[in-house]
Fold this sequence. Notes:
Layout: E1 18-27, E2 34-44, H1 45-61, H2 78-93, E3 98-105, E4 108-110, H3 115-119, H4 121-133, E5 146-153, H5 159-170, H6 176-180, E6 183-193, H7 199-215, H8 227-250, E7 273-277, E8 283-285
Parallel strand pairs: 1-5, 3-7, 5-6
Antiparallel strand pairs: 1-2, 2-3, 4-8
Helix pairs in contact: 1-2, 2-8, 4-5, 7-8
Amino acid sequence: MPSKHVRRITPRPKKNNKEYFIWCDESDQSGKFFSNFYGGVLVKSEDLYEVMQILQKVCRRLHLRDEIKWQKISDHYVVKYTALMDAFFDLVKAGKIKVRIMFIQNANKTTYLHDMHKRDAFFILYYQLIKHAFGLIHSNNSEKEIFLRLYFDFLPYTLKRREVFKQSLVNLQSLHPFQLARIKIRKRDISEVDSKKHLLLQMLDVVLGAACFYLNNKHKEILQEKEQGSRRTRAKEKVYKYINRRIKEMKKGFNMSTSTHIKSGQDHWIHNYRHWKFTPGAFKTDTTFPNENILFGAD
């Protein structure tokens, strides 16, 4: 039976408000070498209509009417997904979309970690992503306020813990750097959504999936798989390599496994695409941990 086509939603910017729309997702909480992958896609309100029109048009041309996901990639979808990623990264290169990918290297073991931090790690890392990854505090030199609209794929915890998390995001606007940048966050503008209905969440899922796939050496599992699984892995590797090539066109010397280099005097907002290898304030490196990851980024 053919799958039901998904109706994708385009949020409507509020009149007279300057807004940043940010879609957030996470993946691979316990990878072999890297874990806790978090990502965000940001589009300014004045660019939203153009971005959505371009991506929706490509989806229609490619007959991609169902949810777009990294895990769906197979031989049949390689050409379609690379074409879609081509349109997506054209928009990133043009500055219409900003992308942030954050992850933790397993060899770096956090020290002095309290039970509360372990329990709330999921939300703490999301908080860090919103607070720091985009460089929001450097994004506004005007007198006009900018409102954040935050969209999270459904959060997998109790209502009480989700509400506490959302309030912590609202409280960001009271921090002095956010006040200086006139960044406003209202609780009603923080939403949990169905990724099937949000195309930019689906784009983020593919980029996150590609990073998880490569950094955790899943492209080297082919010999251990049956023929069908091997074909799917090779298909994913082709899409990963295309994504990596598009990133390196924008950032010479880009290394998938570490934080994207930033020149002295620049801030994070200036970059359209960035990786952030999150390092806790206090940690020690486990020297017995497999060090195969030092080769990442070489291809």
